[in-house]
């Protein structure tokens, strides 16, 4: 619990920062990035080699989205976090083509940036539905386009597209829940996000070791 009651992260002043990003948030993000890099470096050369490109693309896209909506920090934090997490998750498989190690993480990062920067954070259908739609669009369009280019026949890619869309729906719900917890002073969103990302990376690590 923080000393001062926080406003919803998307309503902290019309012109000021919408997320009071602090040292703790930076440390959380750095920790997840270091954990992901350690996993990728010791696991597979290709995902590790491509991860800087994924990260740079996500930083660019999240910055554009954040600047557009005036929520640069929230978009960047969630975009980078989800990119790192998905980069680890896709390192085990070839998603139709080796380029999937870039396309999947960047699509997830873009979806996270769009959801996190949306001004509707409440946990009810009128607020959650637009966030889910944005996440599905941000993941579905690039993944479907990518699949149409590399998959022969296209039907082989349908399970991948369906799983990506389902993942986007879950992403939208998780980000919204974390932001709601932060806005209601229950748990800082960076702590919740870091815990989830760490858990996902730990599960991937255990699968790799076993």
Task: Give a structural overview.
It is a single chain. With 210 residues, this protein is mainly alpha-helical. It has one domain. It is 73% helix and 0% strand.
The overall pLDDT, averaged over residues, is 79
Please count the helical segments.
Answer: 7
Briefly note the structural class of the backbone.
mainly alpha
The number of distinct structural domains comes to 1
Largest sheet: none
| Outline | globular
Radius of gyration: 17 Å
Spell out the helices and strands N to C.
HHHHHHH
End-to-end Cα distance: 39 Å
The helix content is: over 70%
Strand content: under 5%
Total number of beta strands: 0
The parts where pLDDT drops under 50 for at least 5 residues are 1-18
Please tag this protein with its features.
disordered N terminus, 7 helices, single chain, 210 residues
């Amino acid at each position: 619990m923080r000393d001062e009651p926080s406003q919803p992260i998307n309503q902290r002043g019309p012109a000021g920062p919408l997320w009071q990003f602090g040292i703790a948030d930076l440390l959380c993000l750095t920790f997840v990035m270091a954990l992901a890099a350690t996993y990728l470096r010791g696991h597979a050369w290709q995902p590790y080699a491509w991860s800087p490109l994924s990260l740079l693309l996500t930083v660019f896209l999240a910055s554009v989205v954040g600047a557009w909506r005036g929520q640069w920090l929230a978009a960047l934090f969630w975009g980078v976090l989800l990119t790192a997490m998905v980069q680890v998750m896709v390192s085990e498989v070839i998603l139709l083509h080796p380029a999937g190690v870039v396309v999947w993480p960047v699509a997830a990062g873009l979806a996270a940036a769009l959801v996190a920067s949306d001004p509707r954070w409440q946990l009810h259908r009128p607020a959650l539905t637009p966030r889910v739609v944005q996440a599905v669009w941000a993941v579905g369009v690039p993944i479907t386009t990518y699949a149409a280019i590399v998959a022969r026949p296209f039907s082989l890619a349908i399970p991948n597209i369906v799983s990506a869309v389902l993942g986007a729906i879950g992403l939208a719900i998780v980000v919204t829940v974390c932001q709601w917890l932060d806005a209601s002073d229950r748990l800082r969103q960076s702590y919740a996000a870091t815990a989830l990302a760490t858990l996902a990376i730990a599960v991937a690590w255990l699968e790799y070791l076993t």
